[in-house]
Amino acid sequence: MKKKFIVASVLAVALALAGCSSSSDKTSASSESTVSDAPVTLTLWHNLGDTQNGVAVKALTEAYTALHPNVTFNLVSQPADNYFALLQAAAVSKTGPDLALMWCCLFIHKSYLANLKGLVPDEALARMGGLEWTADNFDIANGPNIMLTDRQFYMGFYNKEAFTKAGVTSVPKTWDELYAACGKLKSSGYTPMVYGNGGQSLGALYYPWYDSSYITIGQASSTGFRDLYSGKDQWDSPSNVAAYEKYAALKTKGCTNSDILTKTNNMDDFLGGKAAMIIDGTWDTQKFTDKFGDKVGAFVPPFSDAPMTGVVQMAGQGISIMKYSKNITAAAGFVTFMTTDEASAIFDKAGLIPNVIGSTTSNPVNKEMLAFTETGGLTAFPMLDNVIQGDVVDAGNKIIPSILAGKIKPAAALKQLRQVWEQIAADAKTETYKLPD
């Protein structure tokens, strides 16, 4: 998921503990003997609230306790908007949780997190997709820092009945097609695309990196994300300014609600049938299918002059073991359990796409999204805020929404982002990605 804040580093604690098992699954049975029967309580922090992911994590802990009655969990739901600030303070004093929800990728501070290589059996790690994104320089040989939960898409969703009523006969695939669809939808009484900070409430403004990811993908460069990280492509380059000018035109052409910067019930507008489209993610798919059944579909945000060639698909979050935990072995048993078929079924039941390689999803819209990459020929990309510097992300959280809202010209806004990038240490903006220490 999504939405990240950089946290300060703490001193590393040397660990040399064996991996352990947590399930009868054959992939982890070899380490079952290392599990202690002594009572232990694992504290797990998250900022998921009552989302589908929150439901899945709760069910996951309950299933693990059913297998290991000596292990109980203290689940602590922290506020979404300052979760990492709270985690930072707790990590500095070593009074925080044993396990913590963590976002992928460059937002990981290695000094906080136990490397899972050696703590979790190799055969269990091999079952999980995308772990390379949680390793230094995105090289799995360096060992992952997060046990990822589910495969996530950052995606557009649309109300098929609204499209039919407005005479929009196909999903738009380019900027011009999107503008045209917006005109028809608005004439039919719909808010074409609704923006606001609802759904995943991560701050006062809507979270802009879903859109920015597709703006970068839409410029058709397979190295576009890394180029923004290294500076090979500057934020205020002519091509970026031109792309963000087309993004700003969404509001001036009537595609969006007028209260972009203040709206908090945008999810209600979509679920209530007032809005025809929303940019969101797989953590809300079940809400959409529960409400609309087969009348809701997924589409790739068409933020490009030509049809999109890529889609944002990655496991954007997971559970990490905090290095200072006094219950490392028990915590490792739990994250090992996350690699099992039983855990995979729990995520599917919650309406999510399991991250275990070869697992399936029963939700029809989730299946539709998987088809974009599995059979549709689209390239899977991470989310942009997962692979650029945290200082740029923090600045963009404020600057990019103001572009769409018409409060600042794209050229001036992107110049500000470049200035933030220029202040970053030279070794954190090279051709090699560097996880924060």
TrEMBL record:
Transmembrane segments: none annotated. This is Unannotated protein. Pfam families: SBP_bac_1 (PF01547). InterPro entries: Bact_solute-bd_prot1, SBP.
